[in-house]
């Protein structure tokens, strides 16, 4: 068994990586513009605004208009990054995301900030745990959920160069960069954080760090868990999921999202059709009570212990 | 000026061809929205054959003027306009709404050249047109952007989001045209969720507003072809129109929003559309 991947020292906010990268890209490509709904601060675009005041389009608190404007800017030859709190970006303007971005196929990058339960105490209106389920059927949109600041920067760079709609779902939870040797960002491909043959833990976003910690707990009990960072939700790396089903016989998914229709849903759909194995889905069941991010994670088992427990349950179910 | 090169005559000829052709498409498909096609056709013929700068051999030409059909159900008007403009051959129109046709019930830019964005759900075209106009403003480009909405469509709040930013940014390269036929799908706009005074509303949002008979081609041509330079405001043209314009039994009848003709009605309409 491969040694567990260690993490580097130092926590980094993915939003800082986004902000620095978009400024760098914009400096070299005049087509790059940012579109916001009065979300300059929460999108950390103050530096962008200072450097490129004419290329920051603030439509005010008007998300439907914001997404439509993104499509129009793409029509006019720009590469718009439409950045707003993910709950509003995807929920309020879902029909614009569907018709103007996915169906029309414009080269627009949607950047969902403060996703998941980042706004824990603000309540279910401000949680963005439904966005995966809303966007997954829109197969024209590449959905990327970076695990750390490094992957955020890489995903932003990739999105800028990719011709087509992208949704980047960014976390505001500071995390260390995952320590993966010779790391290369490969959109659409699962990243193996740890090799293992007993069970596979599939996570995305900053939950990948928690899944990795869960694998440490399992290793202490002699269970060798494979850990996959599934940063790209759309399109799903079906090969990696089916290999996990085939080779480890049990799967746990973990995501800062609803257990319905997101990463867990995608894995369950695929495996049930092609290689049925027990799939335990760790995430949120629906609207959540008020609480801090930490409290909500603890309450719903998005912890190393919670994921390890579900891994053992999946093993029981598999008859291993 | 001879009749042959009189722009108003040319536009009227194109509009007549569009009405006859669109109604033939609707009759064959037994689907469509002919009432709204006919209210919009004179505005669209004026734009495509008297105002807009475009090249059908280069639909992606960066400097082209853009037309956004926000009332995407009026594909009879849009598809005939683009065909007459030279974007595709006439026989393509025969496939209107057939299985897998490129002439979908609502326009798709990935199917046909000349379509700027996908519309259908109402209230989408204006924000997209706004984004196109902002792109031109950022780049200092000279193209103009025209967006046509229905009047009932103005009930969608996204239009007013777009209006706020268009006025705020003083986008003189943007023209909003409202097809004011006063009928929505089921009944009159003023019986549903009244829009009047629509001109005052747009003035309050920072637009220069013009009211015009939407079937008076000479008046439309004058307003639409005037240079926007120096106006310092977006332009809103409220085109007072007649739903079903041109066919006696269709005019001002809400039932022709998505009504389709039988053989007798079709023949009668063809007799009138000359």
From TrEMBL, chain A:
Residues 12-177 form the Transketolase-like pyrimidine-binding domain. Its cofactor is thiamine diphosphate. Keywords: Thiamine pyrophosphate. SUPFAM superfamilies: Thiamin diphosphate-binding fold (THDP-binding) (SSF52518), TK C-terminal domain-like (SSF52922). The keyword Zinc-finger does not apply. Pfam families: Transket_pyr (PF02779), Transketolase_C (PF02780). The keyword Ribosomal protein does not apply. Belongs to the transketolase family. This is Transketolase family protein. It comes from Paracoccus litorisediminis. The lineage of its organism: Bacteria, Pseudomonadati, Pseudomonadota, Alphaproteobacteria, Rhodobacterales.
UniProtKB/TrEMBL annotation, chain B:
The keyword Flavoprotein does not apply. InterPro entries: THDP-binding (IPR029061), Transketolase_N (IPR005474). Keywords: Thiamine pyrophosphate. Residues 18-264 form the Transketolase N-terminal domain. Its cofactor is thiamine diphosphate. It comes from the Bacteria. Coiled coil: none annotated. The keyword Cytoplasm does not apply. It holds the Pfam family Transketolase_N. Belongs to the transketolase family. This is Transketolase.
